[in-house]
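Appendix B, example 12.
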Amino acid sequence: MLIRFVLDSKGRKRKVMLSYRACLDLIEKAEELNCLKAYDKAKSKKPKFSNAEEVFRRIGIKANK
């Protein structure tokens, strides 16, 4: 993975240059992290259940009895 830093006149890191592959890897890891955060958030909430008749009524389908 090729990573280069661009320094200012005082030697402080100001910019970074990545290889194309390194950039794609970082994007992939960021997307995976977002998915994991969304999963953790969803799992932390108490599930809400509805009975089938109520769901069918809400979406406009007649339930067979």
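Helices lie at 20-44, 52-59. The chain has one domain: 18-65.
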